[in-house]
Every structure is written in C-alpha cells, then in structure tokens.
Amino acid sequence: MNHQILLAYLEIFRGEIMQTSSQIRTYNRNECITFRKTKEAFGGLSNMAGGYPLIVNGIHILTSEALYQACRFPHLPDIQKLIIAQNSPMTAKMKGKPYRDQSRSDWERVKVQIMRWCLRVKLLQNWDTFGQLLLETGDKAIVEDSHKDDFWGAIPTNDNQLIGVNALGRLLMELRKYLKEDANSLKSLKPLEIPDFIFLSKPIEFLTLKDENHTLSIQEKQLIIPLIPEITLESNVSLDQTKEFYREETIITDTNIEKTEKDDNIFDGWVLPKLEKILQNYQSYDQILQHFKTVNKKQMQDWMKLAVELGKVKKIEKPVRYIWYSAYESESNLLKARKISQSRNTRKTQLKSSQKSKSNVTQESTQLSLI
Length: 371
Ligand SMILES: Nc1nc(O)c(N)c(N[C@@H]2O[C@H](COP(=O)(O)O)[C@@H](O)[C@H]2O)n1
Prior knowledge:
Elements: H1 3-16, E1 25-28, E2 32-35, E3 54-56, E4 59-61, H2 64-70, H3 77-84, H4 89-96, H5 107-125, H6 127-136, E5 141-144, E6 155-156, E7 161-164, H7 167-182, E8 188-189, E9 198-199, E10 202-203, E11 207-208, H8 218-224, H9 239-245, H10 254-278, H11 285-291, H12 297-309, E12 313-316, E13 321-324, H13 325-370
Parallel strand pairs: 2-5
Antiparallel strand pairs: 1-7, 3-4, 6-7, 8-11, 9-10, 12-13
The protein binds ligand LIKH6CAM.
C-alpha cells in the first residue's frame, strides 16, 4: 500500500476513534439538558439556531452550521460562498451536500476540532447571549437529541435514555467548563493549526471580542440577521429537509431548493419591508392583517412567527401586539435612558439626604462620645 493511502486511512481511523464504543455515552433524559428544535428553551445550543451571527475574515455568516459546513471546502471558495449565502442553515448544509466527496481530505480527522473552533467563534461573537445560555445549563449534561445522528448527538431509547457519542453536546460542556473556570482564555481565538484553514481564499484570522459589550453592535446585527427560517421538525419544514435532518440519503433536487429560495424571496423582498413600515408602532395581529389583504390568516401567522424568530419583529403579550424590532429597541433605549436619569435623580436625592443624616449621625455620635 502506498504511503499516501496509508496516511489517508490513518486519518480516517483517527477521526473514527470518537465513534468507537468507548466514546458512546448513555444519558438519562431527566437529568440532562437536551435540545432538538431550535425554538425550544435550549435550542440556541444547536448550530442550526439563528440569532448568533458570526464574522470570519470580515465576512458575515448567519449560523455556526454554515461556518462549519463551509470549513469542509477550504480549497473551493465558490462552494464556501454558496453555503454561507443561504438564508437557512439547513439549506446551507444541503447546498454543500453534492460536493461532500470533495471535502478536505482530512475532514473526518479534523471535523471535531473544527466544530470546537466554530463553537468558540459562536461564543466569542455572541458572548452575552450564547454565554448566558451555556451557563443556564448549570452542571447538567448537554445532549443533542437526535433521531438518527448518534455521533454529533444521542438517540432516544424507549426508557427515557439517550445513547450516542454526543460529540456536539460534549464540546458544549467543554466550552461551558472553560467559560466557568477561565473565561478570559475564551476572549480571543487563534486559528486552528491544521493545514489549509482557509475561508474564502484567505487564511482564517485571529479573532477577538468585538466591543465592550462583547457582542456585535446593533447595526452589525441588523446587517447580519436577515433570514434564518426556524428549523423544526414540524410542518413548516419540507419532507426533504426533514429527511436531511435525519441524515437519510435523500437526493435533494434543485426544485426543492429553488422553492425554499422563492419563499425566502417573497418574505425577504415583500413581507419584511411592508412589516417594517407598518410596525413603527405597536399593532395587533388583526391590524397587521388588514395591510396584507390578499394573504390568508395561516400564512400571515407563519410569517409573523418567522419575523419574530429572526429578531426582526418584537412580540409583546397581554394583549398580543407587534412592533418592528429597531423601533422597539429605540423605544426601550429611550425608556432605559429615562429610567437611568430618574434613578440618577433619585440617587442624588438619596445621597443628599444620607449625607445629611450621616452628618447628623456623626454629630450625634460625637455628641454621644462626649457624654
Ligand atoms: N441534518 C441535520 N439537521 C439538524 O437540524 C441538525 N441539528 C443536524 N445536526 C448537525 O449537523 C452538523 C453536522 O453535520 P455533518 O453531518 O457533520 O456534515 C452538526 O452541526 C450537527 O449538530 N443535522
């Protein structure tokens, strides 16, 4: 056997080590944090979750899933572009699928390291939100609950257990441990020391926290957040997407992808701009419907849900009403500013009166000690 082939086998073998029986874990569902759908309480832990935008080599990327998938193809920048251009993380994954046999040759060996790095980018660039979510898991085991994937996740059994390598859950637990014990070490991120760690034809850069608030600025978020349809296993995901979710060998036709893109375009090009206009102040669902006369109720509900999930629109309860997110933010900033100035005034008054009473106390105690 020639040397190169031997090395290739060795690489695959090393990558497969994580899948050997010693890596398989059994979890009791009642004792862990599990996530499957991105809209569940801990759905943000999924790479498919929107709302955790990234920037690598100055390029905006909507999800850690898209970044991870793009990393398969350092030598094919056009495929990387195609992957990160997708609005939905699922479509991003699907777009790369036809080219999988051209993944970097050491992919199986390096994919866990790459996933670890992607998760660190997600934390670094979404420090408060993702960090908080990680910490909210406490000391519990984190498990990606999956029907079929017992490498990245674990598969439920009948007796309330989940069995699998749970590589993603374990990487998340590892990250949580560092976050608790040595958060500073996570505030910058070196590129991986693997060959061809390249994104869009440039070596991947050293990354650091973005700003004082540790997150992307609001303006950046608005630029980045466009469309990330919620990935669930429910009716709004097509059968083909669901099959892909469960890793069945489905042939994904261009028509499926085109349909998703068409739907995205209507939402992106028509619904969102209209909502932005209408929702500069709070509106009830019925009021919104009046602006979309040709649209049926169910469709409108789905769009509103999506707009909320994407962080474009804010939904307020009791009574239910909606407002465009940036209008909501500027309003709540105003409120915050008002509150701050109110509390400053109150503090000033308190300070004055406490200084007064302090001087009284001092006087009193002086007087007392004089007795
Ligand atoms: N197909 C699919 N759908 C989802 O909703 C998922 N959460 C996953 N799992 C994620 O897929 C990524 C791994 O992809 P490869 O199979 O290694 O290409 C990883 O992010 C898993 O968490 N898959």
